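1st attempt posting a full record on here, be nice pls
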Amino acid sequence: MGRLHLPNRVWRLGLALAMFTAAPVMSNQIHGYSEQFLTAPDQGWHIANYRFSHPAFDTDWSRANLKFEQGLHLSLTPQTGAENRFVGASVRRDTQSHYGRYEALLHPAKGPGIITGFFTYTGPHYGTQHDEIDIEFLGQDTTRMQVAWFVDGVLQSRQIPLGFDAADRPRAYAFDWHPDRLRWYADGKLVFEITEDETTLPKEPGYLFANLWAADKSVQNWAGLAPDGASATAYVGHMSFTPLQTLSAGLDPE
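the predicted structure (as tokens):
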């Protein structure tokens, strides 16, 4: 758990993922939430639904690729007659959050070039620098979890061996965001920690996302390449945020 030496792919992932057409709503950052998505929520979440142009993505976004039924069901499907070969799913919390614990029950997709993500993001679209904290599963090897963080658009990341295949069943994953450290958990165990003594950490409040997408061939050395006609599904059983104040007091999120 020391200093990392990592590739500089500052253009990847969160740079444009959060650019949904709906205007963001600012939140009271002391309040937490826990959403099980038993049915479609009446409010609080925004579903991406548009054609997407980004050099790292081979994916457009569609509401039809996300279902609410005893959890979130995300699908990746092939398409023809469009610049991108695939349609994926992405959901975002409508309000910002900051320091605290972010948790999800995740069953990621399997397959080369297919990425399942759970992360916080903010950036120029929201009037801030690009800060981000990620949990990602690269479908070409779901025995590893990628942890990552951006500060003003600069990426650092680490591939964490899990000791199990994340694609075999849903498990709990989380990250703790403190002013002076980041911690990531898999199946209830701390798997990685980084402190401000070792690197610069994100500071800007962000929006919580979950998504499923296919990578462009330009980044296949990182993620692999989904074959033509590929399809995949991922499951999110719940998503929650517990503010640092509540976490420190040992209370449940509101």
